[in-house]
Amino acid sequence: MAVTRTFSIIKPDATRRNLTGAVTKMLEDAGLRVVASKRIHMTKDQAEGFYAVHKERPFFGELVDFMTSGPVVVQVLEGEDAVKRNRDIMGATNPADAADGTIRKTFAESIEANSVHGSDSDENAAIEIDFFFDKDEIVG
Ligand code: RTP
Ligand code: MG
């Protein structure tokens, strides 16, 4: 299995509850290595750009408000089959549907305030990493 990269966000509900370390530990325990990380407060423009694929969805406005409601930690994760590995440890979007032992089952507050984002394909991972990181900020 090839070593690949994915993009992760520790969302405002998790940073607010001081869960950055706890979430990162679950990612690391799942076999992912943090090769870039920074804490930022997303602007409305950044959140709208990042979630542009969802702009027709009814929850888009609320999602942008939530993602700009506090700091987030954006990360690049590296590991074997990183996109799938990360989505497996994240769990289902709605914590009510997430499997035991996943980040969302453990920490998420709701379908929206669900603690983490993870890219859904290698192609989107590359786009999302590029959206937030310069090449020299990533140290593999
Ligand atoms: P993500 O993109 O954050 O990794 O999560 P995902 O693939 O599991 O979920 P997606 O369908 O891409 O939705 C993106 C984010 O929008 C919020 N959401 N709210 N109110 C709602 O019904 C609703 N549905 C989704 C969540 O924060 C979700 O992670
Ligand atoms: Mg998604």
TrEMBL record:
<keyword id="KW-0547">Nucleotide-binding</keyword>
<keyword id="KW-0963">Cytoplasm</keyword>
<dbReference type="GO" id="GO:0005737">
    <property type="term" value="C:cytoplasm"/>
</dbReference>
<feature type="binding site">
    <location>
        <position position="11"/>
    </location>
    <ligand>
        <name>ATP</name>
    </ligand>
</feature>
<keyword id="KW-0418">Kinase</keyword>
<dbReference type="GO" id="GO:0006241">
    <property type="term" value="P:CTP biosynthetic process"/>
</dbReference>
<dbReference type="GO" id="GO:0006183">
    <property type="term" value="P:GTP biosynthetic process"/>
</dbReference>
<protein>
    <recommendedName>
        <fullName>Nucleoside diphosphate kinase</fullName>
        <ecNumber>2.7.4.6</ecNumber>
    </recommendedName>
</protein>
<dbReference type="InterPro" id="IPR036850">
    <property type="entry name" value="NDK-like_dom_sf"/>
</dbReference>
<dbReference type="GO" id="GO:0046872">
    <property type="term" value="F:metal ion binding"/>
</dbReference>
<dbReference type="GO" id="GO:0006228">
    <property type="term" value="P:UTP biosynthetic process"/>
</dbReference>
<dbReference type="GO" id="GO:0004550">
    <property type="term" value="F:nucleoside diphosphate kinase activity"/>
</dbReference>
<dbReference type="InterPro" id="IPR001564">
    <property type="entry name" value="Nucleoside_diP_kinase"/>
</dbReference>
<keyword id="KW-0808">Transferase</keyword>
<keyword id="KW-0479">Metal-binding</keyword>
<keyword id="KW-0067">ATP-binding</keyword>
<feature type="binding site">
    <location>
        <position position="114"/>
    </location>
    <ligand>
        <name>ATP</name>
    </ligand>
</feature>
<feature type="binding site">
    <location>
        <position position="87"/>
    </location>
    <ligand>
        <name>ATP</name>
    </ligand>
</feature>
<comment type="similarity">
    <text>Belongs to the NDK family.</text>
</comment>
<keyword id="KW-0460">Magnesium</keyword>
<comment type="subunit">
    <text>Homotetramer.</text>
</comment>
<dbReference type="GO" id="GO:0005524">
    <property type="term" value="F:ATP binding"/>
</dbReference>
<feature type="domain" description="Nucleoside diphosphate kinase-like">
    <location>
        <begin position="3"/>
        <end position="140"/>
    </location>
</feature>
<keyword id="KW-0597">Phosphoprotein</keyword>
<comment type="function">
    <text>Major role in the synthesis of nucleoside triphosphates other than ATP. The ATP gamma phosphate is transferred to the NDP beta phosphate via a ping-pong mechanism, using a phosphorylated active-site intermediate.</text>
</comment>
<feature type="binding site">
    <location>
        <position position="59"/>
    </location>
    <ligand>
        <name>ATP</name>
    </ligand>
</feature>
<keyword id="KW-0546">Nucleotide metabolism</keyword>
<feature type="active site" description="Pros-phosphohistidine intermediate">
    <location>
        <position position="117"/>
    </location>
</feature>
<feature type="binding site">
    <location>
        <position position="104"/>
    </location>
    <ligand>
        <name>ATP</name>
    </ligand>
</feature>
<dbReference type="InterPro" id="IPR034907">
    <property type="entry name" value="NDK-like_dom"/>
</dbReference>
<dbReference type="Pfam" id="PF00334">
    <property type="entry name" value="NDK"/>
</dbReference>
<feature type="binding site">
    <location>
        <position position="93"/>
    </location>
    <ligand>
        <name>ATP</name>
    </ligand>
</feature>
